[in-house]
Design brief:
Largest sheet: 7 strands, parallel
Structural class: alpha/beta
Radius of gyration: 25 Å
Number of helices: 16
Strand order of the largest sheet: 7-8-6-3-9-10-11
Helix content: 25-40%
Number of strands: 16
Distance between the termini: 55 Å
């Protein structure tokens, strides 16, 4: 769908009439230096190929379920109207969870475009839906659930952001994530509690505090009432409005009825507020597309289903663990994924059967059990070793390698099963590989470029494995 570039007149700098040019210059500059974090609101959450807004659809579904006429304008209105009819609040959280779980809802073009931004690795959302997380999985995980997520909830003790080392894509739910239970933002009463909790707990969450205060935040389509927007800005800044703040808080949103009041509020701080708050009124979906267009003009977007730097696509992967298959264990961070899929490309070029978890493991699968079963059934295990696998102490690839070591207990020493491959400048011997394999020499394959000898060697081993139960020990290890 073609989107016209967003051009708006409005109170861009508080109290000052200006065009959107200065707003866009800041955004483009922050994208270049890697200090911009998009914060997505319900106004930019779309689904289906026609970029249909998700939250109005949720409102319509709930209104029909509860027999509300007229249909309220937002979810808070639905909650209030249903409570007036003696509806149960706790049931509403469950109803929304079931609605999003049962419906065939796929991320819209805008979310996929946002997920394809090479300049942005971290995203936050003030919505409760999982669509941006799914978009990141599609664009960066080739369909499998690789996005690291974090959620601030009213029902559990706040935890800090996870270790970001080795994280390829991250989405933080500032106001909770949809679940069968309460704990995520559903109506204004929740909003008040979330902002108070964020204000109170943020100083005790050092990683979250640093991330939010030391980056420029671009809030798109929050659709918050003006009072909530002001409190949220205050909670995140963790300082009085008249105190200095190093980073910008940029807001692109639909024009609310109280826009004049908001401009007056921020405008009254002109001359005292530093590290300012800037407003750009307009259609948030149109803004989102224009934001992506400008970002893609700087750096080409990631492409769904095709691994950057290779010709290989997800459907090229073997989806069935056939006899002789090679299981590949690797980190999902972008550099490692590119190197790994180059390995897959080279092996497939000579006819090797490769099993990799990029398409078969989808949301809803019990992927841990399926991964363990794949390790138990494969004929060969190829361990992709990198700086990430050698520095990140907890991840699924460590589980896969431990499962391989457990299986190796029952495999004859004459059988060639485990193949460690180093794809970067990681020193040898690797520290984090299972001790069971410490005597196996690792192969070097910078950026996934396997030597022709190794490719031919593994192809021959697989050819023999598909015809006999074990690999002859006459072949070189």
């Amino acid at each position: 769908m073609t989107q016209e570039p967003l051009v708006a007149e409005g109170p861009i700098v508080p109290g000052v009439r200006d065009s959107s040019a200065g707003f866009w210059r800041k955004i483009e500059s922050f994208l270049k230096d890697g200090t911009l974090i998009p914060v997505l609101g319900p106004g930019v959450i779309t689904f289906g190929e026609d970029d249909r807004p998700l939250y109005p659809w949720i409102v319509a579904q709930l209104a029909a379920k509860y027999g509300l006429d007229p249909v309220p304008s937002n979810i808070n209105g639905v909650v209030c109207a249903n409570l007036r009819k003696n509806g149960n609040l706790e049931d509403m959280y469950l109803d929304i969870d079931e609605l999003l779980d049962s419906a065939e809802i796929t991320p819209g073009p805008l979310l996929k475009s946002l997920a394809s931004l090479s300049q942005c690795r971290l995203f936050f959302t003030v919505g409760f839906d999982p669509l941006m997380e799914r978009a990141l999985d599609i664009l960066r995980g080739f369909g499998s659930p690789i996005t690291t997520s974090w959620s601030f909830s009213l029902k559990s003790k706040a935890t800090d952001l996870p270790n970001m080392a080795g994280v390829g894509a991250f989405l933080g739910y500032l106001f909770g994530k949809v679940s069968p239970n309460s704990g995520y933002l559903l109506w204004d009463a929740d909003a008040i509690e979330f902002v108070l909790a964020l204000e109170r707990q943020l100083p005790n969450l050092p990683s979250l505090f640093t991330t939010l205060t030391q980056n420029n935040l671009l809030v798109m389509g929050a659709n918050f009432p003006d009072w909530l927007s002001r409190f949220l800005v205050r909670a995140i800044r963790q300082c009085e409005f008249t105190d200095s703040a190093d980073k910008q808080f940029l807001v692109a949103d639909s024009e609310p009825p109280s826009l004049a009041d908001a401009a007056l509020f921020y405008g009254s701080l002109k001359g005292t507020i530093k590290g300012g708050i800037q407003l750009l009124p307009g259609d948030p979906v149109a803004f989102g597309h224009e934001f992506c267009r400008r970002a893609h003009a700087q750096v080409p977007p990631l492409t769904a289903g095709v691994v950057p730097g290779t010709k290989i696509s997800v459907p090229y992967m073997t989806q069935v663990m056939e006899k002789g298959s090679i299981f590949i264990s690797y980190s999902h961070v972008p550099d490692d994924a590119v190197a790994t899929f180059r390995i897959v490309e080279l092996l497939r070029a000579v006819g090797c059967l490769v099993w990799i978890d990029e398409k078969r493991l989808i949301c809803g699968d019990n992927f841990e059990n399926k991964l363990q079963d794949a390790v138990r059934r494969c004929s060969f295990f190829l361990s992709v070793i990198s700086n990430t696998t050698e520095t990140v102490g907890e991840s699924y690839y460590h589980k896969e390698r431990k499962w391989a070591a457990e299986r190796f207990e029952s495999i004859s020493d004459a059988v060639h099963f485990y193949f460690p491959v180093i794809v970067d400048a990681t020193p040898v011997p690797p520290r984090y590989e299972p001790a069971k394999f410490k005597d196996i020499t690792a192969w070097n394959a910078p950026k996934g470029e396997l030597s022709p000898f190794f490719v031919a060697h593994l192809a021959e081993l697989q050819r023999l494995a598909r015809n006999v139960e074990t690999t002859p020990d006459s072949l070189p290890r």
